[in-house]
Structures
1.
Amino acid sequence: MAYSDFSLNQVKKVFGLTEQTVQLFSNVATLEPSNWLEETLSYSLKLALASSSEKARSEFIIAPILIELERRNPNKLSIYSGENLDVDEEQGLKGECDFILAKSPISLTMQAPIISLVEAKKGDIKGGLGQCIAQMLGAQRFNELEDNSITGIYGCVTTGEDWQFLKLEGSCVFVDNHRYYINEREKLLGIFQFIVDSY
């Protein structure tokens, strides 16, 4: 078993997790997108939305948002795309992650993961929650093994157009009761910045 094999019910049952729907980001300040991001998305959104490929959405929508975040936080944030996070093979906490954001300068090896971001397969946000939570558990376990003081791990499942955020604290998964959309770029950037600042 690997991260991508977990459904929401499976991951909750296997790891004894509880789930709560809450408002995660009620008072988060918005951030104005840079001219670079707006110009990039004005071209790349057309390309992504004309394709049914998850890879296209990843490259044309998700990556520019994450690059914008890294540009706003120089030497504080690393983006890992398609990296394996193998921490517990017996429990199924292994496999490739779409994106992992780490609170550390860019390096060849992953350090201090804080956010797991999963591309929703076939545009199904709910269907990606199990995989995302499993990767959040993997990040939590990684930090424990590395003696990082990071406790809460954030997650996000996205189609590129829709964005659903989560937070894992101990054995409780908090699911944001609000879903965000790509036309709310100021809010999305504000949420990602809030997450980075909270560490």
Note: The chain has one domain: 3-197.
2.
Amino acid sequence: MSVSKESKAFDYAKSPDGEDVFPKLAAIFKPVALTAFGVSTLDVMLYSHPKGYMQTLGRYIHFSWPIFGAATAFVLGSNIAGSVRAKDDRLNWFIGGMMAGSVYGVWRRTTVGGLAVGVALGMLAVGKKYANLNGTHLLYPDKFNVQYGGFRSGQQDWTLMKHRPGNWTTGEEGK
């Protein structure tokens, strides 16, 4: 019996709240890093225009730490709430969203802003947890239903000898 060494991506929603905290943090840090890099790059190129390497690095840190902090606060908050309450429900994710919003409040130094963003992120998290529990999707489906070979298809075949859909033939079979 051979053992497969392929690694499978960790699915955040498959394990209940309060378990697998470090794999959940690792799974969420890749999209968070890409988001933080994108937001920081947009700020540096389109808004702040820092002069020199140190000011540029400072702007990247200024925008990246709250994004990483909010993601970490969400994961830790929802998992701590799940382990303390011993339940896997939407309230845990609301608590995590509130904690993520509080990071925004600390970053912008506003209590009201942190509360408002916390409520908004908490409600968004409740919607996402509801979608996970019911097998639906909040924003987009897992697999898009597109026509094979269509203009905007992700399955476009640009090879010289591409597959002919349906019962099309080359005309050489009848001879």
Note: The two ends are 50 Å apart (CA to CA).
